[in-house]
Structure formats: structure tokens, C-alpha cells
Amino acid sequence: MAELERRTTAAAAAPTQADIEGLPALFGRLGDNVMALLDTKLSLVKVELKEDAAVYVRGGALIGVGVVLAVVGLALLNVAIAFFVSTLFSFDRPALNYALGFLITGIVYLVIGGIIVVLMKNRLAERDPVPNRSVEELKRDKQWLANEVTSPEPTKSIEASRTERISNG
After folding, report:
1. What Rg do the C-alpha atoms of the chain give, in angstroms?
2. What is the pLDDT of residues 58-112, one digit of tens each?
3. Which of 26, 78, 112, 158 is the most exposed place for a label (fewest CB within 10 A)?
4. In this structure, how many other beta carbons lie within 10 angstroms of the beta carbon of residue 33?
């Protein structure tokens, strides 16, 4: 009986040839899984950066539209309103009436255009350029990889872990 226990203990402690041959295969699979994970993460970063770039392009275009509208408004409406404002003054020289009308109208349109530009600049400044979803995924994967390397028993594959995370929300 004691002999049987010694053989069982010795057999459990000594690695078999199948265990030794399986270890490189496990490392190979781990390397393949890590490469697949990195490819997926890089794709996610690219998608997020494209989304952020699109937001900045749209915002920049709206700033440009705001500037163009302010300039066109300054050029066209300024003339009409300046003539109207000039009728409110009763100086002896009509040129002074026109000058004050154009000055007041120009200041009003410059303020409106400046407000549009500042509002759009602030809206873009509020947007966080860091791809947060990618950063969170990379942190989770780093933790999973650390657990995988330190754990003596194999755990779920990367795909299984990712599928479980997605289904859990």
C-alpha cells in the first residue's frame, strides 16, 4: 500500500513527455492569442481616432462657416444697417453720419462672428481626444495577460474572455 502511494506521488510530481511537448504548444498559442489581441486593439484605436478626427473636421468646418458668415454678414448687412443707423444722427456733415453708422454696425457684426468662433472652439475643447474605450480594453487585457502568465492552470482564451466581457456589457 505504501509502495502504491509512493508511485502515485512520484508520477504526479514528475512531468511526463506529453506535458513537456505540450508546453511549447501552449506558449505558441499564447503568443498567437496575444498577437490577435494586439491586432484587435490597434483596430479599435484606429476606429476611435477616425471618429475623433471626424468630429474635429466637422467642428473646424462649422468654425469656418461661422467665420465666412460673419464676414459676409459684415460686408453686406453692414452697408444696409449702417445707412439706417446713419439716419439716426443729425450732424451737419452727412459723411460723419455715415461713418458712425458703419462703425456701430461693424462692431456688432464682429461681436456676433467672434461669439460663433469662441462657442465652437469651446465645444471642441470639451471633447476628450483620448480613445477611452481602447485604453480600458488595454488595461483589462493587461490584467488578463498578467493573470494568465502567473496562473499555474490555463484559463479561458482571449476570445472567450472578450465574448464574456461583451455579453456582460
Report:
1. 35
2. 889 999 998 898 888 767 877 887 788 888 888 888 888 888 888 888 888 789 9
3. 26
4. 17
Q: What share of the chain is helix, strand, coil (3-state, %, to 5)?
A: 85, 0, 15
And the C-alpha cell for 12?
504526479
Give the model confidence (pLDDT) of 143-168 as tens digits.
888 887 776 665 555 556 666 656 66
Please report, for residues 30, 41, 105, the alpha-carbon distance to residue 77 in angstroms, rounded to integers and kept in the order given. Answer: 69, 53, 8
162 or 55, greater pLDDT: 55
Q: Within 10 A of 78 (CB to CB), how many other CB atoms are there?
A: 22
Tens of pLDDT, residues 28-44: 888 888 888 888 888 88
**b/e string for 57-76 if b means 16 or more Cβ within 10 A?**
eebeebbeebeeebeebbee
The confidence score (pLDDT) of residue 76 equals: 81
Backbone angles phi, psi at 90, to 5 degrees: -130, 50
SS3 153: coil
**How far is Cα 44 from Cα 120, in angstroms, rounded to an integer?**
28
**Residue 115 dihedral angles phi and psi, to the nearest 5°:** -65, -45
DSSP string, 53-84: HHHHHHHHHHHHHHHHHHHHHHHHHHHHHHHH
